[in-house]
Amino acid sequence: MTSPDTKSIFISLKWKLLIAVMVMLTILGGILGGFTFRQLINQQSYQLASQQNQLAQNLQSSISLTVDQSLLAAQQISLLVNDGSNDDVKFDVGNYQEMLDKRWPDIQLYWELNTIHLMSLSGEVLAHAGNRVDVEDRQWFESSSVSIEPHWRIVCHRECVIQVLVPNLLQGEPHLLFLESGLTDILARFRVNGTFELAVLGPKIVHPVGRNYWARELYSISNKRMSLPRLNKIADNFSWEQIASKGGIYEVNGEYSAIWIFPLAEGANSPAILVINNISDWQAILNEFQESMLGTLLFALVLSGCLVILVAWAPVVSLSRHANLLPLLAEHDFETLKKLSPKSSSLIVDEVDLINTATNQLAERLQNLELEVDEYTSELKRLAMLDTLTGLPNKAMLMHELKKTIACVGRIHDQVALMYLDLDEFKRINDTLGHTQGDELLKIVAVRLNNSVRAMDTVFRQGGDEFLILLRGIRSDQDVRKVIHKIFASLQQPVVLGHHKLIVTTSIGVAYCKSMNVRAEELIKYADLAMYQAKDAGRSNYRVFTEEMLHKANNRLMIEQDIGAAIAEKQLSLFLQPIVALPDSKLKGFEALIRWFHPELGLIMPGDFIPDIEHSEAIIRVGNYVLEEAGAMLSRLRKQGWEDLYMAVNLSAKHYMDPGLIPLVQHILSKYDLPPESLLLEVTEESVIEQVDLALSAMKSLKRLGVRIAIDDFGTGYSSLSYLKQLPFDVLKIDRCFTAGVLEGSADTHIVTTVIELAHNLGRTVVAEGIETPQQCEFLADAECELAQGYLFSKPLEEDKVFGILTQIERDRVWPIEAAPQLGKLGS
């Protein structure tokens, strides 16, 4: 048996099971106990809140009852005054005072009054009995508005009393009756429970003297012997604001009490009743509940532990036996394992017995698998580094061999070369003949490549139709060229696939390695760049990697990365070159030409960045930007009164065949309210002939919108006349390479006149580009060319300069000819 790691701590399964059960029971018991305890706490809080609300209601009702009793007392005292008097006799204050002097002991005893005063509405005391009113009482009289309802307040002087100001009619004349009584009845009715202890505290004193509580004087307290020490502790431990804002339960000297404050009047500084409710009995019940829950949980844990040990002992012992047997599987000692495995003969089986059966079955299967693995291992070793289709070394083998060969440069090999091959038009062959025939072609090519290289060279298959050849021991470039010529010659032999006979060509990129510091990945990258250069040069070509290729690739990557920021930051601007009529030079439109004002590199002409992005999605974003800006410029021209002008915009091949072009053109025409014929979209002849069918479909879609189409750079492509009549274009633009030689009487002269005549026969308009001299302009006018543009009229101009010239020629609309035009191809 293999022992556990010495750093590990072995814990038996039965103990783990016991711990798990105890943890689960503890958690469950804790959750249930906590829930029950929370319910008790909530019940306690609910009862205390109910008691607090009941006390508040009792206080209000007690005060209201006292005020009502004062109103009743006032009415009955009025009856005493009016008793036996004649209604016709005017009310006499002396009689009222005489009645009070005579009956005051009875009135005081019956109504429990401390003071009674009869006052006029102005506050003058007409009659009184008991304590006299002081200055504060008079201020209260004056501040109280006269109404039919009684006014009351509770104040504390020598004691806390309730004062009631009652309106009273004596023989039809309104008076005020001031009654003052103690709080005994209010406190008696307020204290609904004998366990409540009450303390009446006066308002807060600014400069307290002597014993006070929270700067308040104590006027009365229930059960002074027990309550006063508790009140002292509460005042020492808790602030008045804390009790007033939160209330609730507080612990003082091990006893729990609920403390509430009930103000006796409105305002922050008013007398108040402090209620102390001893809830120590309730808290004792909660503590007793916690102790009983803890005991129950402990008993459950002990009982469950015993049950777990009793039930789990036998299975754990059996599992321990299996733990000693399982390492035999790792040692491949299957026979010993089968002999030592316990044989189960019981009618009742459990999971441990199932483990025993599964262990024996696993041993049997592993024994059989070992035999199969031994058979396949040798085959896998052979296939690990080979391409399954062609049998050539694969990419993994290429990296291994390339690293090993580069490490030998300078010691065994003077230099090595890596050739990157990509079959021309293989995708078309695969799509036409099917993948089966395509795979067969790859096998044939692999054989021919192997037969074309030297014995020291190795052919690899990268994947798809890409092959790499590692040439070792290269002494000169002639060694590489010989291998390339042999490859081209071997591929020139036709390949028969079914009923088809094909001639396959390839494009080859070559990268030399003369230093062992070059990484394998870099060498593959260099050969790949050279191969793409060979692809661009046409079929059956090869190119050797140069640093200029890498620079161009990096520059193309930089442009693709920066073009997004250029569009977002408006670094791209449109310059306008006028297009005029021949021979009168009247302005007919403009061609929009893009310029990139790079924040670091300065002005970048389109020829320096458009070719780098014309095969990527960036060219579509640039084209969309140019269309949007051209539409806006054309709209501004039309608002200035130049409604008969059109705007020509160049489109790349990728852009005008993009599905999103049609919706964009519709949007621009609608957004700027442009007539469709005012927009001329130019596509080059070369881009059209590459994919005639797709180009024809795209041009028809554009024509349905009403926009016009021009074939740009006409004559620079090939086979132009064979499809010219099929394309739905409106304008034919003769490239400047032909117009430059029209005065020399050479072939250019005949080409230009023939193209003009051909376009007219097809009903098309002709624009001659690159006009730089008046003589060229005269010749083209005689040849009936309708329109011209070039440096004779103007180089591409910024929009504000164009509008400046338009202001000058607004009357005759004749574009001025430059006095000394700059020559050269600067207008693109």
From TrEMBL:
Residues 556-810 form the EAL domain. SUPFAM superfamilies: EAL domain-like, Nucleotide cyclase. Keywords: Coiled coil, Membrane, Transmembrane, Transmembrane helix. The chain crosses the membrane at residues 17-37, 294-316. PROSITE patterns: EAL, GGDEF. SMART domains: EAL, GGDEF. Residues 414-547 form the GGDEF domain. Residues 352-386 form a coiled coil. Its cofactor is Mg(2+). GO terms for molecular function: catalytic activity. The keyword Transmembrane helix applies. This is Bifunctional diguanylate cyclase/phosphodiesterase. It comes from Shewanella atlantica.
